[in-house]
Amino acid sequence: MSEKITLSVLKADVGGYVGHSSIHTDLIQTAKERLSNAVDKDIIVDFHVTRCGDDLELIMTHKHGVDSEIIHKTAWNTFVACAEVAKDLKLYGAGQDLLKDAFTGTVRGLGPGVAELEFEERKSETIIIFMADKTSPGAWNLPLYKIFADPFNTAGLVIDTSMHDGFVFEVLDVLKHKKIRFSAPEEIYDLLMFIGATGRFIIKSVYRKDGLIAATASTQKLSLIAGKYVGKDDPVLIVRCQSGLPAVGEVLEPFAFPHLVEGWMRGSHRGPLMPVAFYEANPSRFDGPPRVIAAGFQLCNGKLIGPRDLFDDPAFDEARRKSNEIANYMRQHGSFEPHRLGLEDLEYTTMEKLMEKLESRFEADV
Ligand code: F6R
Ligand code: MG
Ligand code: MG
Known about the structure:
This protein has helices at about 25-40, 70-90, 140-150, 155-160, 190-195, 220-225, 250, 315-330, 350-360; strands at about 5-10, 45-50, 55-60, 115-120, 125-135, 165-175, 180-185, 200-210, 215, 235-240, 260-265, 270, 275, 290-300, 305-310.
C-alpha cells in the first residue's frame, strides 16, 4: 500500500444502446453498485461512473498504485457484470471490448482502456478527465502538444515562472512497442515530426521538468491486441491542472478547435472531434462525429469532488457549430480520402476479397 493516491480510469464498451450511439442506464447502475461495494470493502477510496457514447467509464481513486491487480480485477469484474446486463437486454455488441474470457492479473491486453496516475495530492488537486468516443488515442496528440508546448495556447509557459522551463513528453511507438522522451521547448521540431503521425506515435504521458507527472493517456490499440478490428479505442486522458501546471482554461483551450481525428463510422473515417456536454455525448450522425467530454474534479484526500461538466459552456458553442460544418464538408467526400482512411488504416475493408475476385481481370498497362 502506498501513501500516495492513485487515480485510475478504466473504460470499455460492453454494449451499446442504441447501436453504438450511447449506453443504457442499467449498465451505469450496475457499475455504481459494484464500485460502491468496492468502497465498502476498502478496496477503493472513491469512484465516479460515467459514459461517453457507448463507452462505460470507471473513475476510481485508491492507494494501490498503478497496474494494481486488485484494482484491475475490480474493474474487470464490473465490466463483466455490466456485459451480462447488456446480454440480458440484447444490447448491441454486448461484451465487445472484453476480448479474453479470464482475468490474468491486469486488464492490459484484455481489451479495456486504462489511464492511471499515482501522485501525492497537492494542497489543492485539480484534475480534468477527458473521455472520447469514436476515435483513437492519437486524438490527444494535438491538444497535449498545445497544452504543454504551445505558448499561443498556454500563456503560463510564457508568464508563469513555475512553468517557464517547459515539459517532457513521453511518446510511444505503438508498432514497435518502444518509447522515447522529448524535452519541450528545446526539441519541439523533433517532437512534432513524430507526434504528427497520430496513428503510430502517441503521447503517453507528460512530466514537468522536476519529474512531477502532469498528464497520462490510455494508449492501447484494440485492433493490434486482437489482430483484427474489434472497435475503435475511444481513449481517455487525465490532466492535472493549476499551481505550476496549465490552468483549467489552458487545458480546455485546444478543444475550441475541432481538429480532425480518425474514427467515426466503422472506425474508418476522418472527422472533427466535437467537444460536448455530458448529455450530448451520443454520437448518432453517421455514428459520430467523434465526441469528447471533460469531467473536472477537485480531489480531497482521495475523494472525487465533482464532476463539473467543463464543456457545458456556451464558449464551446462555436467549436460545436464548426464541427457540424466540418462534418458536412467531410461527409460530401463519401468514399473518397481523406474522409475515408487510407487502405492500410481501414477497420473494415472489402479490398482483399475484391483483389482476389478481380485478379484475372487485371491486364498489364503498357
Ligand atoms: C465505430 C463504430 C460504429 C460501427 C458501425 C457498424 O467505432 O463502432 O461506427 O463500426 O455501427 O457496426 P457493426 O459492424 O457492428 O454493424
Ligand atoms: Mg461500440
Ligand atoms: Mg465507443
